[in-house]
Amino acid sequence: MKKSILILLSFFSLTVFSQTTELSSYQKKTMNTERFARAVNTGANHTLLILGSAWKTSPELGDEIAVYDSNGNMVGSVAWVPEQEGHAGIAIWGDDETTPEKEGMVKGEKFTILLFDKSEDEMFEVKIEEFKTGEDIYVKDGVTVVGQASIIKSLSQKLELFQNAPNPVQENTSISFYMPTKGKVKLYLSNSLGQEVMVLADTTYDKGTHSVQMSAKSLSAGIYFYKIEANNVTLTKQMTLVK
User: Fold this and answer.
1) Across the chain, which distance is largest between two alpha carbons, in Å?
2) Counting C-beta atoms within 10 Å of the first and last residue's C-beta, which end of the chain has fewer, N or C?
């Protein structure tokens, strides 16, 4: 069993995590995430491998898996595909220690795993029930192999505003939110003084998960807050812009 896991880790290191300009067909499929934007590649990562046999209920083609740090920042994602017996390899990106911002995970920080069910348009929390190797804690160049996992609850029963990705932002970022029912949405950006500086959306959205792209080219570096108003509820999250 250990030998087969080592072979799998070697395969994913050469495919999912390689930074070559020529992408394989498998890489293109797994990197083609619609729900989750790509996390910031900081050059330091922890390898997470979820075995295809680990799932009590297997994901389906179109589903996506993402990893989040303790602050709610998305630090790794992959589109699930049935190739390679359904094994899913994810690079969990670590923090860039040369910058003051927190772009990724730090040593000893615990991570959580979410599954986006495309057919149901819902987000679920994933519980790890057995580790073959490692644990749910980030270590640079570390390895975690999940031997058993289950989907424990839906996170998509109310208005949800997700952390933008990538964050910190240099030029562009993606902001996603979940609407429990059809309704009017206003999504806007404010500076640290509370002044509205950009309206990202002001229209009606159907029930489901939606993503809005934001260009930060006209904004100066600093801390900003993005807010969503919908269904008589206001939610706020913070982003950092760097130049």
Assistant:
1) 57
2) N
Q: Nearest 5°: phi and psi at 12?
A: -70, -30
Task: Give the pTM.
Answer: 0.71
Q: Could you tell me where the DSSP H helices lie in the chain?
A: 2-14, 25-31
CB 66 within 8 A of CB 111: no
**Residue from 69, 70, 75, 16 nearest 40 by CA:** 75
Go through the domains of the chain in sequence order and give each one's CATH number: 2-154 (no CATH), 160-241 (2.60.40.1930)
pLDDT in tens, 83-100: 778 889 999 999 988 877
Dump pLDDT digits (tens) for 108-166: 999 999 999 988 888 889 999 999 999 999 999 999 999 999 988 776 678 889 888 88
Q: What is the identity of the amino acid at 131?
A: F
Q: Which residues pair with 25 in a beta bridge?
A: none
Other Cβ atoms less than 10 A from the Cβ of 110: the count is 11
